[in-house]
Amino acid sequence: MERRSFLKKAGAGVAAGAALGLTACGKSETAAPASAPAAAIHTGLPSIQWRMTSSFPKSIDTLYGSAELLASRLREITDGRFDIRVFPAGELVPGLQALDAVQQGTVEMCHSCSYYYVGKDKTFAFGTAVPFGLNARQMDAWIIGGGGQELLDEFYGNYNVYSFLGGNTGVQMGGWYRKQINTLDDINGLKIRIAGIGGEILARMGAIPQQIAGSDIYPSLEKGTIDAAEWVAPYDDEKLGFHKVAPNYYAPGWWEPGPVVHFFVNKAEWDKLPKEYQAAFRAASREAHIQMTAMYDHKNPQALARLLSQGVKLQNFSNEIMKKAYDVSRELYEEEAGKNPAWAKIHAEFEKYRKSQNAWFSVAEGSYDRFMQSVR
Predict the structure, then answer these.
(1) DSSP character for 33?
(2) For residues 312 and 247, is the Cβ–Cβ distance under 8 A?
(3) Terminal alpha carbon distance of the chain
(4) CA neighbor of 74 nearest in space, from 218, 224, 301, 283
(5) Strand duo 48-54 + 82-87: pairing
(6) Cα angle 113, 96, 161; round to 5
(7) C or N: which end of the chain has fewer Cβ atoms within 10 Å?
(8) pTM (global) more than 0.70
(9) How far apart are CA 175 and CA 220, in angstroms?
(10) What value does the CA radius of gyration of the chain take, rounded to a whole number of Å?
(11) 314: phi then psi, degrees, rounded to nearest 5
(12) Running DSSP on this structure, what letter comes out for residue 129?
């Protein structure tokens, strides 16, 4: 990708955003809230207080903000009767134990990524993202219209939770590297901060995955303890300053093509809710889901332009690396299907849906995108 080309297009995009009345936080100053009036809720409904633990710190404001939006909308719709208090990662429970807290009834709900829990069962990955899986729009299509929600509900039921869409970052970036990664030989021995199935695939390619908390990534890169790290995308990555010590920024994050974030709710607590509150929750969660993707799509181009202006080297993974990673992912999925019935059931349906979606997107979206990327 050409740096000058991106900067030119990004500048035009920022101007267009300003013309639409977007504030610095990406919110429209004229848009009306998409919530029902409080008067629509029967005054005889009970007052309910829940706690929601997030897997994200407040500093990751776009991710964390979706939970705050859900809580705010519910208070607005119910005239404060349904009140959910949001807690950042670590305040009640560690971020990667959020689902466990909901499952055990310690809190009523959480805002988290399903694939954080692949250590329990790799099938958890399907709720968020699998390498070389569906992009953000395709994930919405699968979950909402393609039977994905039903498959996930059956699986999550084993863990005493219901799931609701709670955001999507869009395809993520491939991470920050101290040195250029051009060939498969460059992957061999690479110490990279990455978790989950993506890390397992890279390990099979010769890399050495490291699981490091977000606060420890920068010093590890700076000292050379690790050679590379993946996080999210330009807006969040910029905050953590990775570009100062690892200037090579790669795309795409093939391990996270369309990662969904979920609101997980304890089954018993959900079943006790009045149907009016359940309906309000569904509406508010769907708004929060849509808002996250829109905000990342708004913020990422501007952040990437700023990073490029500071000398960041934007590059794509070579076709050799991409093809090898894809082939390894296929091998891993077949192995898992042979020993994990839950994985096998969802994977079979997921793969059929992916092929159908890819065929359709190549006709309309793909051809349009290719043309627009070719013009100046």
Answers:
(1) P
(2) yes
(3) 13
(4) 283
(5) parallel
(6) 60
(7) C
(8) yes
(9) 14
(10) 21
(11) -85, 125
(12) -
